[in-house]
Amino acid sequence: MALSLEKEVVLIECGCGCVKPIVKLFLCRFCMKIRCSYCLCHEIDCCFCAYCTMSLPPGEARVKKNRCSSCMDCPSCFQALSLRATSAGRGASFEDTSGKAQGDNAKATKYYYFSCSFCRWSTRDVDLPDRTIAIGGWPEKEHPNTSRITELIDYYKAVAARDLKDKNKKIAPKTNYLDMDYYSSYIRLKLGAHNKDNRDDKEFHSAKSSREQAPRHSLGLTQSLARQKVGLPAFHYARDTGSVTVPPITPSEANECTEELPEDIFMNHTDLSKIATLPQRFAQPEFQPELCSDFYPIRKILILRKSGRCWVCEHNVLKPEIQPISVKHKLNTSCFYHMPEVRIVSVNPFYPGKASNVILKFINPFGYKTNISFDRLESKDEEENADVIVKKISKYDREETKFGRVKKVEVTAYSNIYNRTVVLQPKNSAADFDDTPDLIPAENDSSVDENCLWTKNNKTAIRIAVTPNSDLQPGDKVVLGFSVIYSFLQSNAAPDLPAELNLSFRIFLSLGNIVISEES
Amino acid sequence: MDNGAKAKKEVSYQASIAVGSTVCKDIKLQGTVSIGTLTIIHPKASILAENGPIVIGDGNIIEEQSVIANKLPADANGEPQTLFVGNNNMFEVGCVCEAKSVGDNNVLEAKSYVGPEVEISNGCFIGAACRLTLPEKLPENLSVCGSNHLRKIMSDRPAPQTSQKDHLAKVLPNYHHLKKPRQLTGS
Q1: What function does this protein fulfil (chain B) (predicted)?
Q2: A415-444 b/e with 16+ CB inside 10 Å = b?
């Protein structure tokens, strides 16, 4: 089902200009605009292990290198390793972390090791000693260059801090004390100017509404907050506490001679079953084992659950439940639940300049009656909105904004769908399971559109005549575009907003191709 | 008359079933077959001694729909060759084993296939749906698995299925008719 909806046949235009299937779009309940994944700020909600569903806050996950501490992957076939328990331990160091000496009570203890049920690799294959603790605490393999890496990281952190300090020094005025009056007047000036010049600047207003309710007078503002408001970088008054000391590092030295190949490398028969394959080496980038005997269990990578926030109004659009086990959402404003769905039921062959019948089905996702009407694709009034989004995204320099966005869909057909109204009955989940017959309107029922074919629960099918442009060649795509206006009832509308809204979206249907004539 | 109907239904075979084995009645036998003690054969398994006799050792588990077939060509003297299956092997559901010989402690996972020119040594593990068709002698403790037939040598042979065997020997007779142990009697 999801797959059929993800097909790029029925596409809806997002506020930013890209067109996507309905399941990939969201409706921001505050802007009342369609948002796609590029118009959302993606935030990490929680990191969790998909195997043991242990969740971690993102900060802690980063410390643990985004890997689970208790679950392991097979280094040979990358399936999850399963823990095996035996009474007979094996390995050099029985006296591991528990500190128990191997003695009489060692008989009663159980020994654990990891084993892959798929390829039968086990930690015993690489002579890793068994452990007496079942979960967690499996020792991490020490990287030979750890100290060098931490040294370099510390060095570059210090360099970055020094650079930041130098940069701030240039901006900061040369006063050693806090000149409150100067700053407050400066800020007032800045804010006032901002208000006058860009009275219609939506971005500013939306930001203002949420945050700038705080008093604008200098007394109520802290320095850092004031600077943040006028868009200046924060500066540090404590700049004279001393310069950042950059720890000395020893630069790496290039070596002239490389290690010689072993003499018998061309003579010996290669045993591929003992040599790691490239995927196996890349699975452990820090060690890249060449031989199967150097394998070490790979700690499972944590996966993220992310939430989406509208770039324009900064409200949440998508918020999953915190529990990683739950697949539900606290808030899910997917367009699939918030706008009528359009499906193509059947099409007739298309010829340039000739009208053909197309049957479309409209599905009401709401629990109330919805009127939908159709209009031509009018000129867009959302350009400025798109600009805001693009500006915000480009701040983060996201590659997708440059390459991944689909901008234009060329409409190559027109139809007689405009200026019609269709009434969709409310959705009733229980009724979907009933075997109710299709309701076919009586022939001379004037209350129903004559092209309305049938109605079943919340679904209505209508017939339209689509005429491809006469300049199309055989094999060309027939794309129909129109805008759909539908009534939307806000369940939890803010008091200053009307409860019922007329929303619209622009939709593009790829109906098929022009028939390639049989004579040619 | 009864005997005649039976003979029509079943392909002729000569089976020697050792005492202590659990061999379900609903299996397909063909040719000369010998089954060792403690071996468990599930219903619907096939042991087809087509080109020569098959000798199955002790403590093997042969699961449903698995096929063990002797497809060996006749030797230099024109005599049929015998397929020897060692001890404590595991033939999982739907595997097809036409190997030259099978050693001890091997595991053939579900739907795996071993061709007639392969010699399985000891402690080998052939993963689910893996196909071995080229002539070779598998080294000991070899593991073949995955769609890429990833090969590696295991440190140890696959764990013996003792408890599974005990359990099956206890449970199978409750639900299936068993073949009685006998010494080389044909039907």
Answers
A1: Part of the dynactin complex that activates the molecular motor dynein for ultra-processive transport along microtubules.
A2: bebeeeebbbbebeeeeeeeeeeeeeeeee
A124/chain B closest Cα distance in angstroms? 7
* CA–CA gap between residue B128 and residue A217 (Å, rounded): 74
With both helix axes pointing from N to C terminus, report the angle between A202-211 and A383-395 in degrees, rounded to the nearest 10: 70
Collect all residues from A whose CB is shorter than 8 A from any CB in B: 76-77, 118-122, 124-127, 272-274, 277, 292
Tokens found for residue A339: 């706008």
Interchain proximity B146–A118, CB inside 8 Å: yes
CB B61 within 8 A of CB B159: no
Convert the pLDDT of each residue in A6-15 to its tens digit.
788 898 988 7
Which of A78, A119, A120, A127 is the best mutation test for B, with the most CBs of B within 10 A? A120
> Which chain B residues are Cβ-neighbours of A277 within 8 angstroms?
150
The backbone region for B30, taken as left when phi is positive above 0, alpha when psi lies in -120 to 50, beta otherwise, is beta
Half-sphere exposure of B132 (CA within 13 A, CB side): 31
Question: Is A76–B151 a contact, with Cβ atoms under 8 angstroms apart?
Answer: no
Average pLDDT over residues A419-426: 85
Element (H, E) at A25: none
B43 interface with A at CB cutoff 8 Å:
no
Task: Report the range of poorest mean pLDDT among A30-39, A121-130, A180-189, A198-207.
Answer: A198-207
Residue B9 pLDDT greater than 70, yes or no? no
Residue A392: C-alpha distances to residues A107, A183, A197, A209, A398 (Å): 64, 28, 20, 18, 10
- Average pLDDT in the A398-403 region? 47
Tokens of A479: 């794309």
Which among B139, B146, B156 has CB closest to A119?
B146
B2 phi and psi, to 5 degrees?
-60, -45
Range in A96-110, A319-333, B46-60 with the lowest mean pLDDT:
A96-110
- The residue behind tokens 């409409």 is A411
A274/B155 CB distance under 8 A? no
Quick check: A121 and B151 CB within 8 A?
no
CA-CA distance, B161 to A23, in Å (whole number)? 50
Q: How many Cβ pairs closer than 8 A exist between chain A and B?
A: 43
Q: Map residue B8 onto helix, strand or coil.
A: helix
Q: Which two tokens stand for residue A378?
A: 């009018």
Per the CB < 8 A criterion, the answer to whether A295 and A128 are in contact is no
- Closest CA–CA distance from residue A120 to any residue of chain B (Å): 7
ipTM of the assembly? Answer: 0.81
Distance (Å, rounded) from C-alpha A421 to C-alpha A448? 9
Around Cβ B165, how many Cβ atoms within 10 Å? Answer: 19
- For residues A274 and B153, the answer to whether their CB atoms sit within 8 Å is yes
Which residue in chain B has the smallest CA separation from A128? B155
- Tell me the three-class secondary structure of A398-417, residue by residue: CHHHHHCCCCCCCCCEEECC
DSSP 3-state assignment of B17? strand
Q: Which chain B positions have a beta carbon within 8 Å of A77's beta carbon? A: 145-146, 150
pTM of the model: 0.67
Cα–Cα distance, A219 to A111 (Å, whole number): 66
User: Nearest CB to B152: which of A124, A127, A273?
Assistant: A273
Q: What is the mean pLDDT of residues A88-110?
A: 55
**Geometric angle at alpha carbon A265, from A264 and A270, rounded to 5°:** 115
pLDDT in tens, A118-165: 988 988 888 888 888 877 778 888 888 889 999 999 999 999 998 888
Separation between Cα atoms, residue A369 and residue A489, nearest integer Å: 10
Q: Over A463-474, what HEC string results?
A: EEEEEECCCCCC
- Distance CA(A148)–CA(A129), nearest Å, equals 28
